[in-house]
Amino acid sequence: MTAIEIEYCVPCGMLDRAQDVQHALLEEYGERLDSVALVTGDGGVFEVRADGETVFDKDDDEYDVDAIVESVGESATA
């Protein structure tokens, strides 16, 4: 099973985006995930990690919820 962390910038107002990703992951993978935790951050951060491995970083990747869900799936089955 996989533990997911979604670290998002609180001052930037990224909570809605983080919740959208959290909801999509739970809809797709449900009980196959150990947890989907929202982690507060700052400095413009928005990263998604699966078992500590970064699968999305807004500095490197284009924001796309479906792509993030797919990346988590690839990481979880690897």
Task: Describe this structure as you would to a colleague.
A four-stranded mixed β-sheet has the order 2-1-3-4, covered by helices on one side. 36% of the residues lie in helices and 35% in strands. By secondary structure, the chain is α+β, with helices and mostly antiparallel strands. It starts with a strand and ends with a helix. Helix 1 crosses helix 2. The protein contains two helices and four strands; from the N terminus they run βαβββα.
- Approximately how much beta-strand content do the residues carry? 25-35%
What's the pLDDT, averaged over the residues? 94
H/E topology pattern: EHEEEH
Low-confidence stretches: none
Largest sheet: 4 strands, mixed
Number of helices: 2
**Distance between the first and last residues' Cα:** 11 Å
Q: Rough shape?
A: globular
**In terms of structural class, how would the helical and strand content be classed?**
alpha+beta
- Rg, please? 11 Å
Tell me how many strands there are: 4
Fraction of residues in helix: 25-40%
Strand order of the largest sheet: 2-1-3-4
